[in-house]
Amino acid sequence: MALSLGTKLAFGIVVGGAVAFMILSSTGEGVLEYVYVDKVVEAPQNYAGRTIKIHGIVVAKSIQRKKGTTGDLTFVVEYEGKRLPVHYTNIPPDTFQEEGEVVLTGRLQDGVFESDDMSAKCPSKYEEETVVKADAPSKG
Questions:
Q1: What structural domains does the chain harbor?
Q2: Could you tell me which of 40, 48, 135 has the C-alpha nearest to residue 80?
Q3: What is the maximum alpha-carbon separation in the chain?
Q4: Which residues contact 29 (CB under 8 A, 6 or more apart)?
């Protein structure tokens, strides 16, 4: 059964209107901006009050744990020589350590990045080692 021209036109208007409504009413909360620490430090006004993901390296000797808790830390992250203090309010992953890479989700508030979501990786634990071939001829 073929649709009449009027039915096709009406259907197109309804579908187009629905798509336009979804685009215009989107809050954008489903997509988080991923930013390196240096960009946040250089232009904090661009990120204030927004939930973002930041990427940086944990500065050596900057980790401080709140006494008696496992999930309340302050530390500093760095990238390209720019540093940003962090307040983290959750239990950190096992791979979290000084000089390790981290990606944190949170908000910039009064110059401190407030976060409760982190992923971390070890800095050198998994670097490639030189493999010596077993079948290489030995000298002697």
A1: 33-121 (2.40.50.140)
A2: 40
A3: 92
A4: 51
